[in-house]
Amino acid sequence: MKLRTAVRLVETDYGWVLLDESSGGFFSLNPSGVLAVRTMLDGGGVDEAVTSITDRYAVDAGTARADVEELLGELDAAKLVTR
Mean pLDDT, to the nearest integer, of 40-64? Predict the structure, then answer.
């Protein structure tokens, strides 16, 4: 996964967001979402993102996988990433 050209992962006073500098829009991420996004930006896939989440948080792999896939769908729909 890669961020589109004008999209940046930015820490704000209120947490992490994906900021689309071309439109000014943003997509807020919770802590597990940030972990998943960073894992995938570093070259990992869904499996690696799931492992990162289950290693850090008390969540089962099925729930983590569903959450990662939902997040990817939302990021795709918002046109923030390419895969």
Answer: 98
